[in-house]
Amino acid sequence: MKTLDNLLLLGDPRLYQVCEPVYQNELPLVKDWVADMHNVMQQIRERYHFGRAIAAPQLGIMKRLIYMNVDKPVVFINPELSGLSDEKFELWDDCMSFPNLLVKVMRHKQITVNYLDENWQPQQWQMTDSLSELLQHEYDHLEGILCTMRAVDEKGFKWRSS
Fold it and tell me: Is the pLDDT of residue 108 over 80?
């Protein structure tokens, strides 16, 4: 079982790699990967008091897999974003891979995500506002993009208040 000690931190070169798809024959592995992601997210919540989702590459699992737990657990296998709204909003983004740093970014107000669930069934979800920005953040991890790379300007960084 992976723990907080397995979380990749800012500067780890793996965080900048584009992830490979999850293949159907790897579906039996997804359950264990998700259990690891859930465990680490719970540890982040306990230590830093935030964490709604985590992407597999943050644990060195270089696969297109996202685990979100806001109201209930949701597994996104091979997600694809579409329908990105022209309207955007600005926010202070946080990341488990650098938990004390906040980064001011712009995100699309609305997106559509197509993905496979843990049963390999196709799903679609239109997201707005906080869920939209959350999934954009996690999707960026699959593309090797960190929110530090999306900062609105060179002053768009601050330390998290304790």
Answer: yes
